[in-house]
Amino acid sequence: MRNIGAILTKEFKSDFRNPYVLGGAGLFLLSSLFVCYITVKRIPIAAIWVALFWIVVLFASFNAVAKSFLSETRGRMLYLYTLVNPTEFIASKMIYHGLVMLILGIVAAIVYKVLFSVVIGDNLMFWSSVVLGCTGIAFVLSLLSTIASKAGNNLTLLAVLGLPILLPLMLVATTLMKNAIDGIELSVQLKYLFVLIGLNVVSFALSIVLFPYLWRE
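Structure (tokenized):
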């Protein structure tokens, strides 16, 4: 746990010293939401609003999360290899990315509610979809970013791998949020909530299991 805390501290300090990645992701997120507001503000269909929200969050996550490993130099990775074990390293990366995406997702949801004056029927399920959807995206992209970094920092590979893998998670998060806005009964929502939780757990567990093999390369 001490090593995980140390790596988290390193990530926070690194991003505060060089805030362009997170700042750019936040600016992209807010400007995209504003463009969506200008273009579709007269469309009274919640499904369109929800789909646009998750599309914007997804592409913002590529800026905020996916480039994390791509920015790590080979020398720094070799140094970290001598200090911590791979499980602690990938766990700390996923926790940090999950926190970053939570902040971006919550800010985006608040701005979205203000701009579009969205009336939410079930606030608990709405915020559950935001939290679980954002953390799930962060967990998946954390692992895929390591694969892309081993392939020569290939961003194209990251996009090709990421979008199909993230599709089931995006579909469930979109459905859960749409139903929450519509005020669908909790008994109907529970299956989507459990699936979203399961996808988060599986993504985290697979990263813990698979990353040590990538770490040795």
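The chain is about 85% helix and 0% strand. Residues 141 and 196 are 16 Å apart (CA to CA).
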